[in-house]
Specification:
seven-stranded mixed β-sheet; metal ion binding; P_typ_ATPase; alpha+beta
């Protein structure tokens, strides 16, 4: 029982609520003089709500010479007690504690969407050794361990499904509301939940390398206190403390009414000013988290609001980064396009080359039927593959491979293949039994939401730029598809740095979006760096200010609009708090406000600032609400 009471009191929020309840009751008793007590009941509010404020002020002043709002509040409390305004002192302490609690609740609510990841870390795993299963701590799982996951269990580490079919709830990682079907060969992430079927998987990334742990590291680095504009507000708060003390002293000297001086101290506490920025930033971070972004730097959203250009890497950012069969052409009258596709897929079935794997995978995804294993297979590095199946000899590879085998490609076929090459595709040529059969064109698939995203960014007033290491033809084709006017091809990492630096030297702040190791320098150099958190490399994610967890760039316009709205909210908060403070001090100097009413007016301003900031938690522009798939965001 004692342990539970101690644990309850260690929860700061619960303790503050209890102190507020007791303090509020004591003020009611004091105001109505209930029970005619020999001691003013408002002392309870002073002790429970005021002492913590005075303690924090003294500690900050002595250890860091930190002159902030707590200093003025403490002076106002002490001065009220000295002149016998016990109820006023209790009310000041009570209302200040309400404002503090509201700030805590707002910040906690804003961070809740991020910090819940920490509590989703799997504790145990079911390891399979031979015919036996054993339950082990999740941190003991090693790469290549065979694990079994039952329905309802959380997937302990990242891995690849070896057997079994299921549906996985990936909401914690991707924000998808519906479970995703999984089958052998599909990847699964730690922290996601297996819903329906049991499956066996091979562990690929464990411990600190797992998806959930990477996200947790990003969470722990999110800090609103780093924002530059917070420092500005703090400097203002320090000057306001000096001005308030001077005004109180002069008022006392000229009017000889200490009550007016005390009221000035009460109303001029810069709490609303100090709350104006951190609450807005943390609410915006909470909103961004709900839409798939993890903000690693506190001032990242502030900087994003001032961005003029967004530079995109191509592969893995505007495209999925996985080649797909874009076209098939038979050049042999005896074979159909389907025949050429099938022979190529058979030849590439055992290939380790990404393009070969893509051909076989696309055939299987299209449901074209099972492919027979080739009777023989040979990999020819830098050329292609040679295979035999059902008595037929198949060559699949580049133009040089066929030329070395003495197989010629007609001018008409070469011209037709050239049209695909001009679009940035890769062409695989196929020969069957020594005769040129046709070719397959493979291309990186553009993300379904890319065109819409680019269009919305232009509407916001942000210019998109394509920076890619691909050839000119591929870059031109993608840029044309997405209506990107400016692009730069064949960029090495230093080239991307040079372009970004040139823009920023021209006072055009740049946001860079990328996923690869080669993008890391550009992500670091840019005014704001956003990394694709799913497909992106660890180095890219670490170099970025913001990580896009689910790789869905559709939400990017919302993030930019959110950053701009956040800055508008901060400016409104600062303007309102400063205006309220100066109006209140004039009323206090003239004697219109007394300490009790002054405390109410001042703290009402703090509450309004917090409420205004909390509106960012649910902010979403109308232009970003309708999704292409018909889903309407909440």
């Amino acid at each position: 029982m004692k342990a539970s009471i101690k644990e309850w009191f260690q929860d700061g929020t619960k303790r503050d609520i209890l102190f507020l309840i007791l303090g509020g009751c004591s003020l009611i008793i004091s105001f109505f003089d209930i029970g005619h007590l020999p001691v003013n009941a408002a002392w309870i509010a002073i002790l429970l709500c005021g002492i913590p404020i005075i303690k924090d002020a003294v500690v900050g002043l002595v250890t860091r010479f930190d002159i902030k709002a707590d200093v003025l509040v403490s002076l106002a409390l002490i001065a009220s007690v000295i002149i016998g305004e016990i109820f006023a002192a209790g009310e000041v302490a009570f209302i200040m504690q309400i404002g503090s609690l509201l700030e805590e609740l707002t910040v906690a609510r804003a961070r809740a969407g991020i910090e819940k990841l920490v509590h989703l870390t799997p504790r145990t795993a079911r390891r399979v050794i031979g015919e036996k299963e054993e339950i082990i701590p999740a941190e003991q799982v090693a790469v290549d361990d065979l694990l079994r996951v039952l329905p309802g269990e959380t997937i302990p580490v990242d891995g690849v499904i070896l057997s079994g079919q299921t549906s996985v709830n990936q909401a914690v990682m991707t924000g998808e509301s519906l479970p995703v079907d999984k089958q052998p060969g599909d990847e699964v992430s730690s922290g996601t939940v297996n819903q329906f079927g049991a499956f066996d998987m091979k562990a690929t990334r464990v411990g600190e390398d797992s998806s959930i742990q990477r996200m947790i590291r990003l969470v722990q680095s999110a800090d609103a206190g780093k924002a530059k504009i917070v420092g500005l507000a703090d400097r203002w708060a320090t000057w306001i403390v000096v001005i308030a003390l001077s005004a109180a002293a002069l008022t006392w000297i000229f009017t000889q009414e200490i009550i007016r001086a005390v009221t000035i101290l009460v109303v001029f506490c810069p709490c609303a000013l100090v709350l104006a920025t951190p609450t807005a930033i943390m609410a915006a971070i909470g909103n961004a988290t709900k839409h798939g972004f993890l903000v690693r730097e506190g001032d990242a959203l502030e900087r994003l609001a001032g961005v003029k250009k967004i530079t995109f890497d191509k592969t893995g950012t505007l495209t999925y980064g996985t080649p797909e069969v874009a076209g098939v052409k038979s050049c042999d009258p005896a074979l159909t396009d389907q025949d050429v596709y099938r022979y190529t897929a058979i030849a590439e079935l055992r290939s380790e080359h990404p393009l070969g794997k893509a051909v076989a995978s696309c055939w299987q995804k299209a449901g074209q039927g099972a492919l027979p294993d080739p009777d023989s297979f040979e990999m020819l590095p830098g050329r292609g593959v040679r295979a035999k199946c059902a008595g037929r000899s198949i060559l699949s590879g580049n133009h040089e491979m066929l030329a070395e085998a003495g197989i010629s490609v007609s001018k008409e076929a070469a011209a037709l293949a050239g049209t695909w090459l001009d679009q940035g595709c890769t062409v695989i040529y196929t020969a069957v039994d020594g005769r040129f059969a046709g070719f397959l064109a493979l291309s990186d698939t553009v993300r379904a939401s890319a065109e819409e995203t680019i269009g919305k960014l232009k509407q916001i007033g942000v210019d998109p730029v394509l920076l890619t290491g691909d050839h000119e033809s591929a870059a031109r084709h993608i840029a044309g598809m997405l209506s990107i006017e400016e692009f730069h091809a064949e960029c090495l990492p230093e080239d991307k740095l040079r372009w970004i630096d040139s823009y920023q030297q021209a006072q055009q702040n740049v946001c860079m979006i990328g996923d690869g190791i080669n993008d890391a320098p550009a992500l670091k150099k840019a005014y704001v760096g956003i990394a694709m958190g799913g497909v992106g490399s660890d180095i890219a994610v670490e170099a970025a200010d913001i990580a896009l967890v689910n790789d869905e760039i559709r939400e990017l316009p919302h993030l930019v609009r959110l950053a701009k709205r956040m800055m508008t909210t901060i400016k409104l908060n600062l303007t309102f708090s400063m205006t309220l403070n100066f109006i209140a001090i004039i009323l206090a100097i003239t004697g219109i406000l007394n300490p009790i009413v002054g405390a109410l007016v001042h703290n009402a301003g703090s509450v309004l600032v917090i409420i205004n900031s909390s509106l960012l938690l649910k902010y979403r522009a109308k232009a970003d609400r309708a999704r292409p798939d018909g889903d309407i965001s909440r």
